[in-house]
Amino acid sequence: MLGFSKSLMLEVRKRGLRVVAICPGSVSTPFMDKRERVRPAPDRALGAEDVADAVVATLTVSDRR
Fold first, then answer.
1. What are the helix and strand counts (H, E) for the chain?
2. How far does the chain reach from its first CA to its final CA, in angstroms?
3. What pLDDT, in 10s, does the model give residues 7-16?
4. pTM higher than 0.70, yes or no?
């Protein structure tokens, strides 16, 4: 996904468009509780709200040019 995002960014930046990939890592959700593999410590996982805040912040950043 990161490779695709970088490729897309290189293609569309000439038109003034931005491409952002958000890779939050471990997020504490009910889905995580069902994992059979090792789970991260609860204090190390992000909350769903943290990820949502990052997405909103990315979408509302003013133009820095």
1. 3, 2
2. 27
3. 999 999 999 9
4. no
